[in-house]
Amino acid sequence: AIVEMFGWPHADVEKECEFLAKAGYMGVKVFPPQEQIMSTEPFQNVMNPWYFMYQPVSYKLDGRMGTRDELRSMIQTCRSLGVRVYADAVVNHMTGGGNDANPKHRNPDANCQEFGAKQSTADSPMYTQNYVYSESDVTGLPPLQEFPAAAYGPQDFHCERVLNSWTDPLDLNAGWLTGLTDLNTERDYVQERIAAYLTDLIGIGFSGFRMDAAKHIQPDDLVKIFGKLKRNLGGTLPVDFITWLEVLLGGEKDLLMCDPDSGYNYGSYLEDALVASGFSQEDVDKVKIWNSGYPKEPDAGACTISKK
């Protein structure tokens, strides 16, 4: 079993790993290790709610849970005790529209209420197009999606699209999930940046990932991202590698899991695509599906990534 340490700082996870080892846990999953937004103003009456940690600013491993050095120390301690460590990997999007460093925001749906800038855990700048009423002092133009610390610019994001259908593949893949700036994962450059981040996580000692919002990255793009990761690692995935994709179901079991011909399938279609791209069956078996069919679609549990 892999235990979830929801919101635990790296230093506290490091202390807990001795108990986890004695209790027989195979691994521990930690909150997203990345630079995230921070704010000095309440958001919906809460200061820096937990979901801010799922809003990346860059792929620097300095976030609310601790620094890169603290992360490395925790992983080394846990692995020395026989406990693997898994990362929550947020690669579908960056921080939400308007949650950026621009000091001049205004909400037209709230009597033009103004709000200030948000910071980040590593002080990197980031700018989005939303709620802006001023132009850039540098370019003289309104800002677009600009995340220089992640080496992303406007061309690396899908055009803003409301995600209002859970059965439309275009909406699922290109829609801005709850207003989060959606990465254009069809773009080779974006795939390379994501693969580089995942490679860094493996390099610092992680054994795999929970792929957040995986169903909002179309299956063919995931195959290419995993292919680039495998290439970066020398052609094979690590022996202890396990990754599970978050594929939430709620009326879309045929589209997402059970019908391999749906055009947007994380079941046998994804498995076949991985094999066709050069993955061995052993490496394919290291990619799992976190299937949440129950209670709406309890029979969807039979539709797994493997046909066996």
Automatic annotation (TrEMBL):
InterPro entries tied to this protein: Alpha_amylase, GH, GH13_cat_dom
EC number assigned by the record: 3.2.1.1
Any Pfam family the entry gives: Alpha-amylase
GO terms under biological process: carbohydrate metabolic process
Domain Glycosyl hydrolase family 13 catalytic stretches: 1-308
UniProt cofactor(s): Ca(2+)
Hydrolase in keyword set: yes
Catalysed reaction, written as an equation: Endohydrolysis of (1->4)-alpha-D-glucosidic linkages in polysaccharides containing three or more (1->4)-alpha-linked D-glucose units
Keyword terms, alphabetized: Carbohydrate metabolism, Glycosidase, Hydrolase
SMART domains reported for this sequence: Aamy (SM00642)
UniProt superkingdom: Eukaryota
RNA-binding among keywords: no
GO molecular function list: alpha-amylase activity; cation binding
UniProt record similarity statement: Belongs to the glycosyl hydrolase 13 family.
Name of the protein in its database record: Alpha-amylase
Organism: Triparma columacea
Lineage start: Eukaryota, Sar, Stramenopiles, Ochrophyta, Bolidophyceae
